[in-house]
Inverse folding.
């Protein structure tokens, strides 16, 4: 079977690495399409080197640009490749423009789309990523969701539970596989920027990343964050700067101010092995990155997230992540708590990782290969008049699982409630006394 992966940015490369490995391990053919959205060596090629990934079969070289132009160019290029290569399934990951472009193009060519890290919602429609997530989740056939919370988001939007697979997040696969490799390297293999500051013997480290449009494109927000950094002078703040952020800080005349602070080390983005090392040595992190919120809780590092919402709320409820926005006082108050209150810091560190055990890629391949075996992969037009259904609710008064209820009633269970609490309808969930919302096909 030919499995295509469309990707274009740093986090997609990292988070699809284990999926690429698994495709190979299962003896399947991989068609790798790079959109070229990230093109600097340190934003793209370095990750292929660090994670030992194959060179992409195609690079569409879209480069930077406005959302419309970038997404349009991607669609044009992806369509051409897909028409020529005819993959059996197209996988996209996350919420970048590549995800929207890949999902739209493939679904219109009747090629099933598997959305890796589906179902995340920030509920902030000013974020380009939220539009990409919503768009891709309309076009997908297989939803590989990291947590039950994301599964419930999709079920509440009407997606069939039978297409939703809770896999954990592939970032855990990536972290677990690479941290040991990273730590076992000799100093001379570290990125020069980390070797120069002698990271192995440095204490009081805070890793900082920011790149999100809503943080770095707004001067006032950047100024507030910089104001907080200035006061954390007892910490060594290591800031591998995203090219977007560098550009914006230079435009706003803020780069030199931050760069001149002795305790702040601005470096180029580093490769994955180096970044994992930096993360694992950090007392806490400051970030507006999506992936970093997940990696921090996976590696037991407290996270202060420089945002006002998150599509990773599990990290906050678990206690490993605090949303501090770009409010100087809130950033400082929480940073001080981590530094001064050992109990508080330990509680954050011991937050339970909600993203699984590092076998997400394996579960995905199980699902895809089983669908192929059962001939359920292809998207075909209906060969009979399509069944209509009515939407109903009921409270069963006997022990009955979701699967049994569906069999008895020719129904598809959409969601269930236990009192006020929403329940994801797993096959074996006992519906006795629960309010069941379902589609009746009888
Ligand atoms: C993109 C994703 C974002 C993801 C991030 C990961 C979208 C809408 N955004 O944001 O969801 O979190 O990647 O890092 O898909 N640039 C370079 N070199 C590069 C790439 C970019 O200099 O290799 C600069 C360019 O000035 C460009 C700017 O960074 O205009 C922004 O790049 P772009 O790809 O549009 O978005 P990101 O901010 O990277
Ligand atoms: N990362 C990296 N080097 C860096 C900064 C980040 O390898 O200098 C990794 C980080 O470990 C995480 C991913 O890049 O896996 C996050 O990417 P980013 O923050 O750009 O995107 P997001 O996750 O917000 O979409």
């Amino acid at each position: 079977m030919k499995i295509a992966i469309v990707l274009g940015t740093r986090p997609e490369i990292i988070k699809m690495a284990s999926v690429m490995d698994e495709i190979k391990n299962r003896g399947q053919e991989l068609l790798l399409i790079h959109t070229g959205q990230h093109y600097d060596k340190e934003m793209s090629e370095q990750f292929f080197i660090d994670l030992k990934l194959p060179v992409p079969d195609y690079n569409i070289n879209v480069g930077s640009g406005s959302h419309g132009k970038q997404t349009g160019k991607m669609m044009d290029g992806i369509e051409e490749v897909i028409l020529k290569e005819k993959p059996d399934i197209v996988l996209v990951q996350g919420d970048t423009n590549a995800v929207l472009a890949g999902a739209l193009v493939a679904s219109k060519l009747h090629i099933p789309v598997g959305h890796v890290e589906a179902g995340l919602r920030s509920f902030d429609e000013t974020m380009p990523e939220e539009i990409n997530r919503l768009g891709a989740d309309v076009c997908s056939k297989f939803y590989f969701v990291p947590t039950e919370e994301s599964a419930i988001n999709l079920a509440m939007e009407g997606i069939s539970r039978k297409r939703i697979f809770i896999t954990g997040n592939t970032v855990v696969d990536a972290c677990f596989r690479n941290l040991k490799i990273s730590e076992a390297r000799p100093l001379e293999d570290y990125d020069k920027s980390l070797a120069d500051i002698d990271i192995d013997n440095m204490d009081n480290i805070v890793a900082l990343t920011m790149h999100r449009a809503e943080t770095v494109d707004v001067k006032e927000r950047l100024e507030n964050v910089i104001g907080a950094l200035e006061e954390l002078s007892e910490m060594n703040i290591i800031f591998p700067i995203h090219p977007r952020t560098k550009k914006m800080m230079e435009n706003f005349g803020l780069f030199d101010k931050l760069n001149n602070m002795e305790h702040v080390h601005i470096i180029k983005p580093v490769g994955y092995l180096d970044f994992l090392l930096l993360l694992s040595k950090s007392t806490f992190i400051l970030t507006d990155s999506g992936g970093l919120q997940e990696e921090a809780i996976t590696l037991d590092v407290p996270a202060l997230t420089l945002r006002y919402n998150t599509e990773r709320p599990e990290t906050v409820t678990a206690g490993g992540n605090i949303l501090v926005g770009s409010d100087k006082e809130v950033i400082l108050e929480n940073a001080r708590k981590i530094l001064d209150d050992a109990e508080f810091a330990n509680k954050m560190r011991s937050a339970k990782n909600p993203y699984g055990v590092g076998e997400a890629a394996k579960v995905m391949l199980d699902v895809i290969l089983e669908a192929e075996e059962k001939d359920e992969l292809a998207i075909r037009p209906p060969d009979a008049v399509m069944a209509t259904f009515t939407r109903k609710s009921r409270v069963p008064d006997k022990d009955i699982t979701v699967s049994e209820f569906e069999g008895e009633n020719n129904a598809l269970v959409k969601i269930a409630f236990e009192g006020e609490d929403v329940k994801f309808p797993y096959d074996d969930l006992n519906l006795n006394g629960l309010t069941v919302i379902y589609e009746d096909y009888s």
The longest helix spans residues 67-85. The chain is about 45% helix and 20% strand. The two ends are 36 Å apart (CA to CA).
